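User: I'm new to structure prediction. If I give you an amino acid sequence, what do you actually give back? Let's try with this one:
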Amino acid sequence: MMYPKNVLTILLLVLAAASPAQAQTTKKELVQKLLQLQQPGLEGIARELASRPAMQLMQAANNVLQNQVPPEKREAVGKSIEADLKKYIDDATPVLRDRAVKLAPTTYGVTLEEKFSEDELKQLIAWFDSPVNRKFQTLGPEMQNAFVQKLVAETSPQLDPKLQALQAKVRTTLGITAASAPGSAPAGKPPAK
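Assistant: Good question. You get back a string of structure tokens that encode the predicted 3D arrangement of the chain. For your 193 residues, that looks like this:
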């Protein structure tokens, strides 16, 4: 079938005009797929944000427990505080997780759409969805733990004396004598090594 020349021109213009819209839709779909693949990481950030203030509060509470709560009440008070902190984390995590998932398209999604081509998005999706990446993610905590243990073991001889000197200086600045400092040896006895 033969079309008149102006009909072909119109068809080509319509197709050319439709292509950017179709490309945008495809790019938006690719960004959405990538965000779905990243959702576990976003949820992990939310868990971390929920836990961080609770852990800081627990550290402060532990200091007070050790220094101001009678020994016979420490366990009960500690368990009560832990239960309250766990409840906070359990309440805060879903709020943060849900909001993180909703915010991701307006933050991560916008950046991905602006800074990556369609081909680059396809490559990212292929990598995130690959068995090699999943294996790497699974082994991440194990590798990190081994790394941290080795790092601490190799740097402790250099850093422990500096940390002990800092602790002594802070005690002096606070006016705490070595005998009254938590964990210190009784007066007249050298500290155990």
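You can read the tokens as a compact description of the fold. Here is one thing that stands out. Residues 11-19, 183-193 have pLDDT under 50 and may be disordered.
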